[in-house]
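Can't attach files on this board, so I'm pasting raw text. These are the components:
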Amino acid sequence: MSQEKTPIPAGSNFIRGIIERDLAENKYATKKWAGSPGDATHQEAGVIDAAKIRTRFPPEPNGYLHIGHAKSIFLNFGLARDYNGICHLRFDDTNPEKESQEYVDSISEMVSWLGFSWNNGKESNLYFASDYFDVMYRAAECLIENGHAYVDEQTADEMRIHRGTLTEAGKDSPFRNRSVADNLAKFREMRDGKHPDGSMVLRAKIDMASGNINMRDPAIYRIRRAHHHNTGDKWCIYPMYTFAHPIEDALETVTHSICTLEFEDQRPFYDWLMEHLAAPTEAVGGIVKPGLIAQPVPKQYEFARLNLTYVVLSKRKLIQLVEEKHVSGWDDPRLPTLAGARRRGYTPEGFKLFTDRIGVSKADSWIEYTILEDCMREVLNLQAERRIAVLDPIKLVIDNYPETQSEDCFAPNHPLKPELGKRTVQLSKTLWIEREDFMEVPSKGYFRLFPDNMVRLRYGYVVKCTGCEKDADGNVTTVHCEYLPDTKSGTPGSDSVKVKGNIHWVSAAHAYEAEIRMYDRLFKNPHPGQGKHEDGSDRDFLEDINPNSVTTIKAQLEASLKDAKPAESFQFERHGYFVADRKESVAGKPVFNRTVTLKDAWQK
Ligand code: ATP
Ligand code: MG
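---
Top answer:
Structure tokens for the assembled complex are below.
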């Protein structure tokens, strides 16, 4: 995989071309759909499918969704939406271990959050692959009956050795030529729990000399005594993923089964299986039995998975980060899980822009994390109202302003959307300003506060700096100034005094002191864990954790932010985008998460 910086692709999507060709050829014009998944007989009794195409998003409920899944969700649900089709949400829960309801719930929630629904009119297209175990079992018997599968009793080691290599053909199993009757009997014994786990498997009978190792009689059913979250202890045999997945697609009459590139070498088996299960068979007495699955069969298309710099997108690594408590939980705002990204303040519209911008191709590459951040910035710039926040406060005292007075200033809520109006912010004698907005001895090109210099208090007056106070260590504690009464923003003649600097402030008497989590990247290396140590050993992704990925600060915010609702986003002027934490904010006392800075601070 290339680690070169990839230029931003033009957002092309080659799968659109395939769908448009298929639609132009009327490939699915006579496809039937009975309103629910099922075999050929079931679908044949249905009507011509109103959905022009069917896609599916098929997560395994063994973890939380991450940003990579967002690419797949926008692709599958997006194509269905664009081509008058339907996308199914299918939980691929054929593996009995590691799957749980908690994951099912959070996955459904995130798909909805991204703006998609599996409810189409009266029909809910939410499915569980484990509901198909009966048909999968019949499919296996169907292959056996037609001489296309056999029960193999070789040990796992023998099977591995006999599989051959990339350059050497494999070797036929001594069990390969069992009779159909023998195979059926053995397979039923497997199902009935007559044999221990791992003692035998059902294999497709294809070609042990195939150039594609996946076609060398792949295992399709194994014995595994495990409790399943949906089917309980009903089964002690479970289908292999490569066998189960195409059947799931076929039962749901999926037209375009879109998966990541790792499955490219599985496509010949996908097609082989679909062909053999759809083919009519001739039974005794010349009666032709229809195939088990409906025609036209689904087709698999592969695209490059999302690889994003500075994050890990693998469920195993994400689980490790959570379980070893490197982060606070699945929704830690630093994690690339969708639950974490949502808490961080990333938006569905930002993800949509991102997936459109990176496009869909067949070439693996790394996408720069800044592209994602830029998309979030672009969207938030349009969406988020402006507010004032002083993140590193020191006091500014306006010496010629009356002690007990305060007055209203008017700040626009959104510079691009005047219709959102203005809000009132109070000005008084003592203000909070940013520590970096004052320098006792200014550096070259510094236009903010320094003795005798004038700046504008944004939405307020022009002030002239008169000096500062310091503590025993020489740290500035308070800055002093005087205001020019005729210069208030928005009043006639206010711009008669020209100044170069413009700083933000909040009134100390009115400010809301809030907790703010300043989040940064969780990893300090663009490719966490890649490469070797000097002694030649492999590096681990945990070594690249950024020790400063979060700093919690106390900041002084304008009073209106006290009323921010959980999950509400704002631009804090001059700082970036912040969101009221959806989990830990209490009414009247929101805490904020930094979503993204205004500009990229990581660019060298
Ligand atoms: P992981 O490898 O992290 O365990 P997975 O691929 O096993 O992820 P699934 O739950 O099987 O996770 O994924 C559901 C769908 O999301 C699949 O169709 C898969 O191809 C897609 N997907 C997963 N990761 C990515 C990614 N990084 N980019 C694009 N699509 C992805
Ligand atoms: Mg998977």
